[in-house]
# Entry
Amino acid sequence: MKIADKNTKAVDLVRAALEKAKECEDYHAFISMNEAHALDRAREIDAKIARGEDAGRLAGVPFALKDNYLSPEGHTTAAAKMLENFISPITATAVARIEAEGAIMIGRTNLDAYAHGGSTENSYFGPTSNAYDKTRVSGGSSGGSAVAVALGIVPFALGSDTGGSIRQPASFNGVYGVKPTFGTVSRYGVVAMASSTDTMGCFAKNVEDANLVMSIMAGKDEKDSTTLDDFWTKPLEEAKPAKKKIGLIKDFMGEGVDEEVKAAVLGYADKLKKAGYEIEEISMPTLKYALAIYYIVVPAEIASNLSRYDGIRYGFRSKEAKNLDEIYSKTRDEGFMPENKRRIMIGNFVLSSGFFDAYYLKAQKARTLLINEYNKAFEKYDALLCPVAPRPAFKIGENTSDPLQMYLEDIMTVPPSLAGIPGLSIPVGKSKAGLPIGAQLVGPRQSDQTLLHIAAEVEEK
Ligand code: GLN
# Structure
């Protein structure tokens, strides 16, 4: 990516990004632009450079921010009516770290409201189109961020991934998507979805950029007690895999998976072989339970996290409400999207007494079995390879009347989320119709840089 220096002005980088965003307005990647503020910041960076000061490792680089990261410029909406007019008093740690290195936020990107979804169709502000076909979905929930990078508006964008929300839109739009180990990047100041699987990561056009952005965001934050000590510290060349062995997950290469997706992933496996990796098929029988586990545990956490939106503490309050009960019920009825409500209902159901043991507790036990199965696989392999999604981007509207079909699209991305392990989405090809296809590399906890190292070895530049 282009960094501002004596010859490259931050103001020019930011102007070019804003212009490109305007040209691409009909994709609806952004919910709001941060034009005046971004240009002010760019002038400050240019002045710093002119004075001979260090303007940071991302000096003047424009970036796009998923609209569930809090920062005080403009509204942070999470693509929900509930937060349509919400102005944050704080800045998310991840954003603060990126901005401290000189990067400049040009706008906030579209998502499924509260990040609930896999297509960005659940946004209160309407869907984002795929960068390669306007009639198709951008993927989700970080659809806007993926499209902003794919269209070349910005060199990187931030997203959040709870069950695939970075990896899947990355694969639908042909860019890299990094979902780090749980706890790598602070979640302070990001609108919570599911606290045991929420992770913050990024989209970029190449491995080097992705690695740089992640290395800046990663590390301990006293405002998020689940953050790990910074382990994103190596030069990428040194993050070598120990075994040079990769397992190809058989369970995700069979029935129900698009032939072109399979072919693209096998093609990528061949490339890895040529680069000296041993590729072996592996079967992981617990994976078939992952979707059921996810859609019990995650709604439970969602129901709990969304209980704070009561019409009193944050954002929207219904004008129809005549008493306290109605403030709660009407505000929540009007402020949430149907998918948010569906998850609140499922979550409260699986947590209710009488059903807790049968659903929530059972799901958590099965989750442990899944984690054990991954651990066993990583005794033998550095990483596991599979598709990101069963098929390329689907049509806008195709799944909207069938929530279960929509959930099924998440089958390959939710397992690493439940295990808290890193997943990297890599663009590996295109379908005959010209739609991007992604492959997913998954590794043990804190092997994030190793995954990027592997991808860099076979990266097409
Ligand atoms: N598509 C998944 C879901 O709907 C993942 C969402 C996410 O990662 N935020 O839950």
Residues 1-461 form a domain with the Amidase signature (AS) enzymes fold (CATH 3.90.1300.10). The two ends are 13 Å apart (CA to CA). Residues 115-118, 141, 161-165, 193, 298, 410 surround glutamine (CB under 6 Å).
